[in-house]
Design brief:
The chain has 15 helices and 22 strands.
């Protein structure tokens, strides 16, 4: 829960600080800096964000035409490129004048809060794992604030003292802008190709993710997934350096001195005893093997933070789940309607496709570099695909000859078509699954908006004539 007071950064008092990009985190940083006694120069390329900042009393300075000898730092929105593929002109000006470019997470690191920090990154699963760790700690009575890339901007979180813990989701964009952040527990779930244009290729992306472990000491812990080659190599390198405690995790295999899933059980082998600690079927809001990795990561992180096994297990079992991540919206007749809008690339969508059969699959949006690559083994699970957005033609070409599909254009049309077909065919275990394998920006502001629209469309199905015939059972899930 955000505090009205928010976090202050005394180290920035009296300094001029430029802030570029006035979305949620930028506005949050500007407010925190002003409250800390800094002289803020805020700017955004868009008139709308500038108007919102002006209305909030935040000073505006055109950073394309200012005196760059004055700012002590440029606080850059993580969505703004500063290296690849081409630096934004404001970032280029700051670099030319040797003005440090940082982010709001770095400001938090400089605030001298004295609390513990747990950071979570990875190509997929980081939001669920962040929320799960926060839930476990709160359920155990810890003082916890959860945010960062997930939900509340970091500087809007409540100030915590030495008995508090911040649980922060950290994107690769944010990690690049955190030169002094040190985490008590750093979690890397996995690395698969994503955002490669922003990092100059795979090596740059891996390096950005690896920054989560920088500056850790022997009393601090790195939790690292080993189910992909990139993360496995990174785990071996970090373990060999012996700079911090390293706990490997896996969703699919035994791993010495780690935490892993074995045939549906969560196993703790940190002390070499391979103790079965949880039947993962007792955690219904964490379906599928990918969520077994999330559970293993959360267990390892919370154990490193000092929680006892029974408290962690109880927290995993009571986890309510996260919106837009395989979120069960409703059941109509025998068909489940599932919102997985957060699946913005093929690897994330694979996690959902592995969990269900038969699937009436809604996909599309703005395609990532890899398109639908790697999803071919799941095609036999698909009863029919419903294509939306910019990626329709590209995705249709991938599905041609393998999966029956319809080009629907909009999400509303896709939901209506998927609903009609799924209800007509009445296949046991059927799901209507929104798991787009693409970004939302062609038709929606973000994946949250896309998922919320899906939820509204499914809810509207409850009052359509199609749902009142034949006495079909209907269940809306809050």
């Amino acid at each position: 829960m955000a505090s009205a007071a928010g976090i202050r950064i005394p180290a920035m008092a009296g300094q001029t600080v430029a802030v570029f990009g006035l979305a949620k985190s930028g506005l949050s940083a500007a407010r925190a800096l002003m409250a800390s006694g800094a002289d803020v120069w805020a700017w955004d390329d868009g008139a709308g964000p500038r108007d919102a900042a002006r209305a909030a009393g935040i000073p505006l300075v055109d950073l394309a035409a200012c005196d760059w000898s004055k700012p002590a730092a440029l606080v850059l929105s993580p969505g703004v490129p500063h290296t690849f593929p081409t630096p934004h002109p404001v970032a280029a000006l700051a670099t030319a004048r040797r003005c440090p470019i940082i982010g709001d997470i770095e400001l938090m690191a400089r605030a001298g809060l004295g609390a513990r920090f747990i950071g979570i990154t990875g190509t997929n699963g980081k939001s669920t794992t962040t929320a799960l760790i926060g839930h476990i700690l709160k359920s155990a009575g810890r003082r916890v604030e959860v945010g960062g890339n997930l939900g509340t901007p970091a500087l809007d979180l409540a100030p915590l003292g030495r008995d508090g813990t911040y649980v922060l989701e950290l994107s690769s964009y944010q990690l690049e802008l955190t030169p002094t952040l040190v985490l008590d527990v750093a979690v890397l779930l996995n690395i698969t190709p994503d955002h490669l244009d922003r990092h100059g290729g795979m090596d740059g992306y891996i390096a950005a993710k690896a920054r989560i472990f920088e500056r850790q000491s022997p009393t601090q812990t790195a939790v690292i997934g080993v189910d992909d080659a990139h993360s496995c190599g990174l785990q071996a390198r970090i373990a060999a350096a012996r700079q911090q405690v390293v706990i490997p995790i896996s969703a699919s295999r035994w791993i010495a001195n780690g935490v892993y899933a074995d045939r549906g059980w969560l196993v703790d082998d940190r002390k070499g005893r391979a103790e079965r600690i949880l039947d993962l079927a007792e955690a219904p809001r964490l379906p599928g093997a990918h969520n077994w990795q999330n559970a293993a990561a959360a267990f390892a992180a919370c154990a490193a933070a000092g929680l006892a096994t029974p408290a962690i297990v109880a927290g995993i079992k009571s986890f309510p789940g996260l919106a837009h991540r395989q979120e069960l919206i409703a059941t109509i007749g025998d068909v489940s309607y599932i919102n997985d809008s957060k699946a913005t690339n093929a690897d994330a969508t694979a996690k959902a496709l592995a969990c269900y059969q038969p699937i009436y699959w809604i996909l599309g949006g703005r395609a990532k570099e890899t398109g639908l690559d790697g999803l071919e083994p799941f095609y036999p699970r698909i009863a029919h695909a419903f294509l939306i957005g910019e990626a329709s033609e590209r995705f249709a070409a991938s599905l041609e000859g393998h999966v029956a599909y319809s080009k629907c254009g909009t999400l509303a049309a896709a939901v209506a078509a998927a609903h009609r077909l799924a209800q007509a065919e009445r296949k046991p275990g059927a799901v209507v699954l929104l798991s787009p394998a693409g970004a939302s920006f062609d038709q929606f502001a973000n994946f949250e908006e896309r998922g919320n629209v899906f939820r509204q469309l499914v809810q509207a199905l409850f009052v359509t004539p199609a749902n009142t015939s034949g006495g079909a059972a209907r269940r809306w899930l809050q």
